[in-house]
Design brief:
Number of domains: 2
Protein name: Terminase large subunit gp17-like C-terminal domain-containing protein
CATH class of the largest domain: Alpha Beta
Radius of gyration: 24 Å
Oligomer: single chain
Helix content: 25-40%
Largest sheet: 7 strands, mixed
CATH architecture of the largest domain: 2-Layer Sandwich
Number of helices: 11
Shape: globular
Amino acid sequence: ADGWRRTAFAKDSRWSVHKLSQVAPWLSDEDVEEAKALDPIGAEFARLYRGQWISGIGGAVDEASIDRAFRLPGPIPYIEKGWEYISGLDLGVSHDHSGMVVVGVNKVEQRIKVPYIRAWEPTMSKEGGKREVDLSAVEEECVRVNELYRIVWFGYDPAAGGSFMAQRLRQQNVPMIEMTFSSTNLTDMAVSFVQVMKDGILECYEDKEGRLRRDFGKFQIEHRPPSNYKLLAISDEYGHADVGTALIITLPTAINMLKGWGQFSKDDVMAIVESEELTEKEVEEMPDELRELYEMDEGVGGRNRRFDGVISFDDDGEADDIVPY
């Protein structure tokens, strides 16, 4: 390679560089469309088929797509006929805020909308002048929203004490489902977000603080070759895109529901398997407030113990009964 370089410098008139930024003409339209379908984000297609340099990080969606999404006049504090509801929770305690969203899915109309969002700032004083999120308020709101919207799936990030709060919420019949931020789940979340924004099927409303729109603007997408993606968010005084993160937790499930993969029938049975007791290390890493709640529960009849059961469903696909094993 070094010899070729010296020759090129010595006789530069014999060398030229040509840049091809279009799809190769010998590829059929069918091949091109198939390649696009395999890469909903578009980064790999741009690199392999258009010869574009991809740095690895870029804006997740453009401003026009964000503007189009915010077309609901306001929150919808009731359930609507033909809609099923799921929810997402991104729990922060000391360093970040906490965020929760409710997402409605209409399979007939192929629409997804956000009828309700909620954010919590660190307001409770602690030692050293720091502040924490009031986790009891978060828990109460999750219970209220679950009852109001008849939530069928409530996703959460197990970090920052999420697993323990999920245990407590399950005891109050909230259908908490763990969504770890594994590479597979992160890719699903990123692809789902870009897909619903580009297709224009996500509908949101402008909250007074503009939190959700601001969170969308924070999102950047990181490409991890060969085919993994991750949404990154800049942390600021308003948090770490907590409301936006709560939303993207729900989107893979919402899209599956649109495809008909999320409906329960009368013959379906969903197992409820409560997490095992937390390990000593997990308890030690808990925020102080959650650790106190955990130790208090442990001393009052062991409420954090394992519970197994099943949910049966009626003809309308709604939960009919919960029966312990």
